[in-house]
Specification:
- About 40% of the residues lie in helices and about 30% in strands.
- The chain contains 3 helices and 6 strands.
- Strands 1, 2, 3, 4, 5 and 6 form a 6-stranded mixed sheet that branches.
- It starts with a helix and ends with a helix.
Length: about 180
């Protein structure tokens, strides 16, 4: 039994040395292993992120989501610039729907808690080559909010829930774009 363990350990060590030798040879030939975030942090990259189209009943939803997305890109390390003239990438989006569903009722049969759902479609185009890098339909984020008999209380909570799901969506889009670039 001890002899088998010794052979197994020797085999593992031999394989590790071979793998290191291969990696050293590849590195010596000029190849490098690097993450896909080089373009993401390149200051010469220009990205066009116009306000998203808005098909929801919330008046500023498209502009709000796009603005949070630009902020999140900066926060996550994007060092390029934003603008449509000379852009390398175009990010187009549509706020397709903002849906509110009753989540719980009180004893008086009025809603106590609601769930807000944001549905977004997004498309990232590499302008120079004209190819679509990423396209996704029906991305969703949800948040709960409380409601009451006071309309201002309910609407302020609804707005806070909308801002929360917009921020979450922006983080999600930014993380995906960071991997793509």
């Amino acid at each position: 039994m001890k002899r088998q363990r010794g052979c197994t350990a020797a085999r593992i060590a031999r394989r590790a040395l071979v793998a290191l030798a291969v990696l050293s040879a590849v590195a010596g030939c000029g190849y490098r292993l690097e993450s896909g975030t080089v373009r993401f942090t390149d200051p010469s990259v220009r990205m066009d992120v116009p306000p998203f189209a808005n098909r929801s009943t919330t008046p500023d939803a498209g502009a709000w989501v796009a603005a949070r997305f630009r902020e999140e890109l900066r926060r996550s390390g994007f060092r390029g610039t934003f603008g449509n003239v000379g852009a390398n990438y175009l990010v187009e989006g549509t706020v397709r729907e903002i849906r509110t569903d009753v989540f719980s009722h009180g004893a008086d049969r009025f809603s106590l808690e609601n769930r807000l759902t944001l549905v977004v479609d997004v498309r990232v185009v590499e302008v120079v080559r004209g190819g679509v890098l990423w396209k996704e339909s029906g991305l969703t984020e949800t948040a709960s909010y409380f409601s009451g008999t006071d309309a201002q209380y309910t609407e302020s909570n609804r707005r806070a829930a909308f801002e929360q799901v917009a921020r979450r969506m922006a983080v999600r889009l930014s993380q995906t774009l960071r991997v793509l670039l």
